[in-house]
Amino acid sequence: MRFYAAHSVGGGWCIGTLHEGNITKNSSCRSVSVGFPIAMMVTGMVGNSLALILVYISYRKKENQRKRSFLLCIGSLALTDLFGQLLTSPIVISVYRADLKWDRIDSSGYLCPFFGVCMTTFGLYALFMASAMAIERATAITNPHWYSNHMKTSVTKQALTVIWCLVLLFALLPIVGVGKYTRQWPGTWCFISAGDREVPGNMFFAITFAALGIFSLLVTLSFRHVTVLKTVERLTTETVIQLLGIMCVLLICWSPLLVLMLRMISTQTSSHECNSISGKTNLVPGRGNHLNCNFFLTAIRLASLNQILDPWVYLLLREILLRKFCIMANAVSNCSMEQCNDCQNQH
What we know:
Elements: E1 8-9, E2 12-13, H1 23-60, H2 68-97, H3 111-142, H4 144-150, H5 153-171, E3 181-184, E4 189-192, H6 202-231, H7 237-267, H8 273-281, H9 287-320, H10 325-333, H11 337-346
Antiparallel strand pairs: 1-2, 3-4
């Protein structure tokens, strides 16, 4: 799931609804805006590609047989994020290149529902995978005997397939008339029309998405917390840092969007209303609406950032940075590796 709906220029939001006479400013703004989704796409693709390579190498090592279920989960998450970028980023970039006019690239009207399905599928799958990996690691550490006897790679593959199918079926509900995907402000992406009670089944679909997301967050945080508390004396410093990092990143990135969606549902408001307000006045929305729309876009960008950070907090940072902690500490303090290891063991 990739959210590339807005960007920041000089501390303010760059929006395609400026005065018609200000051609130079609008062209410059568009040039900057198309660079932002490209940079995000490249960053995410590099991180997830590296994660897939490391997972493949680790999976083939005999000494990592007990970790194969966890490696399958990480590889599945990285592959999903990578496909999400490949499917949605070109659409967003095309809209920017078309002066933020969606109709120029989607005259048939089918692209918006496709974009919405991708957003919902990849977003929920990432959240569910975070929960699955939290449960898997907690089980492996707190109940190793049951884990070694029952948690086979075949079971993991079946669970991943079931999660994928359930998430996809849920995302397809608006296609069969339960809910609706609409263009969201500033018109570069499509998502659930939160707060729109006129569409049949839309409130059910929007509330269910937000509820599933929040439930997944709570499950992930609970099992990560249990893992740290139950085994903190046996875990290395780098593992504790990684677990805490995963918890903090997931909470900071996803909770604003999910909570805001529930608020928008309760107040019967939707971010696509910003488009109609802006279109009527040909100006940036007024102060109240402007702040609300920008806050929604900020929440979207945080969710997007989580998708890019996933391979780093789950795998790459552990492989590249955390295991080099003592080497960097030695370079700064000029202590020997033995002294550094003693300091780490004390902590």
